[in-house]
Design brief:
Layout lengths: L5 H7 L7 E6 L4 E6 L2 E4 L12 E8 L18 E5 L2 E6 H7 L7 E6 L3 H16 L6 E12 L3 H15 L5 E6 L4 E6 L2 E6 L2 E4 L2 E6 L7 H8 L2 H21 L5 E9 L3 E11 L4 H7 L8 E2 L1 H11 L10 E7 L5 E6 L4 E4 L4 E10 L5 H18 L8 H4 L9 H9 L6 H4 L16 E6 L4 H11 L3 E6 L11 E4 L12 H16 L3 E4 L1 H9 L4 E17 L2 E13 L5 E4 L2 E7 L6 E6 L2 E4 L11 H13 L14
Parallel strand pairs: 21-22, 21-23, 23-24, 24-30
Antiparallel strand pairs: 1-2, 1-9, 2-6, 3-5, 4-5, 4-17, 7-8, 8-16, 8-20, 9-10, 10-19, 11-12, 11-18, 12-15, 13-15, 14-15, 17-18, 19-20, 25-26, 27-28, 28-29, 29-30
Length: 638
């Protein structure tokens, strides 16, 4: 027992070990041991980051911290705690496994706080009342497995950590954090955000393939990789995390992947996003609270939807662990996994394992209930509440990520996506002639797709300012005003946002200032032009389509539950004639334009819009009387 680190020796001797954390990062042959006092902070900006190389702060960021961004939540009052790292040691993995207790974890009174049938009813309500009414594209609703640990909770957590280290695979972090007031133990598959050497990375994971038994059904895996629901689910969270990257990275994020993440009980699909960043890492963490894979999109309204449908606070579920420090050159570093597949244990032995399912327009109640069970399986097995994965799952003879057909199926997912986000571009590489010095104002309707739109317009040559809808500020000095997307019913004349955006559009139309309206902005513009607005029978949330746009078929992505309707390709409006591009089957208006204004129902900035950049270039040509593209400016799609 001479190899025992001080905290483990204290536990073995029945003494209080004090606060500590054990962290194994993906693929590492060692485990990091951090020790130091636990303190609290009010905001992320208050987390200490002193000079000197090494890890300095390990923060336990609860979901309620999202209130820093002004977002809603069921506030459970959980504090923002952090371990002020005073000592850091690396322990070889084999040695730590020898020292961790090899014991069965015993629990009693296990059960979900929300029964299967009740959770299914919540799923139905979210699909009908939220996605169906235009409140967003996808939402994550959680439930929690509750139980009581028998015996010493910390010893049980250490035994669970040992089983996770041995029996789980593919985790980004496998960890145990002991603060004295709580224990977190888990194996999170997903990096939320990291910063190293000026590179910020995010890792959206979505789509869940559940497997049983010792051999993965290869044909079932290939069907999963081609399943429209699973494909679209990943596309939607990719779009949402690109929005975050648009805020924290100077030139937005570049998309790499997709990849297959194989774990002991299930597999996921994932992308990697990367971009250069010079922000303080605490600011990066704040601006990315929290991942759409555990909340939904658009983010701000997803928090409202979660608060409406979840009856309890989330505590640490969907929050992050965040290790902040500095490298040898003194540059700030950040590594933050999402707190999923994680158990929280109180000093009295109360056990909580929260899990959630991503609800999209294709969701079924049975499928989402089953997904919550599958996602909990790994942690529950480590806590004695479920079967371990078979040895072949944790030490596979075959990595399906290396299978040629699996690789081909993954690569095929990128074929319909916008090259703008898949390829590295130098600033100004696709700039339009004559736009140098021209300024655009984007008014955000509570959907940070506007951040991606700002990068696209910037790449085309405009200088872009972005402001929120309650205070768009003066319009003088801008050559173009973009009224952006956002959630909600455009027919609701009493909603403050709809009234404010309508008033802004009325002012813009009356003045003749060049105006581009996107999604919600387009719907409100169409209404002012006299076109009726209609709620779709089936929402167009995360849906790519080939549609006519002013005489040319374009591949574009929709996130909408409402549409304007027209029965002709040209209509007379109060601000002059309007040219309309519409669906020949139902009259849904995909785009419109007139003297000094244009609107599109789809999102040209979305990763789903293969032709998005070309559409924007054409619209700028119409609105600002510029040639379509410069000679070096990418006649490529999207």
């Amino acid at each position: 027992m001479t190899r025992l680190s001080d905290p483990l020796a204290a536990v073995a001797a029945g003494r209080d070990p004090g606060p500590f954390a054990l962290v194994r990062r993906e693929g590492a042959d060692h485990v990091d041991l951090f020790t130091g006092p636990v303190r609290t902070a009010d905001e992320l900006a208050d987390l200490p980051l002193p000079e000197g190389a090494g890890p300095h702060t390990l923060a336990l960021v609860p979901f309620r911290q999202v209130t820093e961004r002004g977002f809603e939540c069921v506030d459970d009052g959980l504090p923002l705690e952090f371990l002020a790292v005073k000592a850091h040691r690396r322990i070889p993995l084999a040695e730590l496994l020898d020292d961790l207790p090899d014991a069965e974890v015993r629990t009693r009174d296990a059960g979900f706080d929300i029964a299967d049938d009740e959770y299914a009813a919540i799923v139905e309500r979210v699909l009908a009342d939220e996605i169906g009414r235009g409140e967003g594209a996808n939402f994550v609703i959680h439930r929690t497995m509750l139980a009581t640990v028998q015996g010493d909770p910390l010893a049980a957590a250490l035994a669970a950590l040992r089983r996770l280290l041995l029996r789980e695979r593919g985790a980004y972090w496998t960890f145990l954090v002991h603060t004295g007031t709580r224990i977190l133990v888990g194996a999170s598959p997903e990096r939320h955000v990291s910063v190293a050497d000026g590179l910020v990375e995010m890792n959206p994971i979505s789509g869940t393939f559940r497997h049983r038994g010792e051999t993965v059904d290869r044909s079932a895996l290939l069907r999963f990789l081609q399943d429209p629901k699973e494909v679209e689910e990943l596309y939607m969270v990719l779009d949402e995390e690109l929005k975050m990257m648009a805020v924290v990275a100077e030139h937005g994020g570049q998309v790499v992947g997709p990849y297959l993440k194989e774990m002991a009980h299930l597999a996921h699909t994932e992308y990697l996003l990367a971009g250069r960043c010079s922000r303080d890492v605490r600011d990066v963490l704040r601006e990315t609270m929290f991942a759409p894979t555990v909340t939904g999109s658009p983010m701000e309204n997803a928090c409202r939807v979660i608060a409406r449908h979840e009856r309890t606070g989330r505590r640490y579920y969907a929050g992050v662990l965040a290790l902040l420090g500095r490298d040898e050159q003194g540059r700030q570093t950040l590594d933050a996994p999402i707190l999923i597949r994680t158990a929280e244990i109180s000093p009295e032995g109360a056990l909580r394992v929260p899990v959630g399912a991503t609800l999209v327009r294709h969701s079924t109640t049975a499928g989402e209930v089953a997904e919550t069970h599958a996602k909990a399986a790994g942690v529950l097995a480590a806590l004695g509440l479920g079967p371990d994965a078979p040895r072949s799952a944790t030490e596979p003879a075959v990595r399906y990520a290396d299978d040629p057909e699996v690789r081909a199926a993954l690569a095929a997912r990128n074929a319909p996506l916008a090259r703008f986000w898949l390829e590295q571009r130098e600033p100004g590489a696709i700039a339009l002639r004559g736009l140098a010095g021209r300024r655009a104002l984007i008014v955000d309707g509570e959907d940070t797709f506007t951040g991606m739109l700002a990068h696209q317009l910037g790449a085309l040559g405009l200088a872009v300012t972005r402001r929120d809808w309650p205070d768009p500020g003066p319009l003088d000095g801008y050559d173009l005003v973009v009224v952006g997307p956002g959630p909600g019913d455009p027919r609701d004349t009493t909603a403050p946002k709809m009234a404010a955006l309508r008033a802004l559009l009325t002012e813009l139309l009356a003045s003749g200032r060049p105006t581009l309206a996107v999604c919600l902005g387009h719907q409100l513009l169409a209404g002012l032009l006299g076109l009726p607005l209609h709620r779709r029978d089936a929402p167009y949330q995360g849906l790519p389509r080939d549609v006519p746009v002013f005489g040319t078929t374009r591949r574009v992505g929709f996130y909408a539950s409402f549409t304007a309707l027209a029965d002709a390709d040209r209509v007379a409006g109060p601000y002059g004639p309007v040219e309309v591009s519409r669906d020949p089957a139902d009259g849904a208006v995909h785009a419109l334009r007139g003297a000094g204004f244009a609107g599109v129902q789809f999102h040209p900035e979305s990763v789903l819009s293969q032709d998005g950049t070309r559409v924007l270039a054409d619209l700028l040509g119409h609105l600002l009387d510029r040639p379509a593209l410069s000679a070096h400016g990418a006649a490529d799609r999207g």
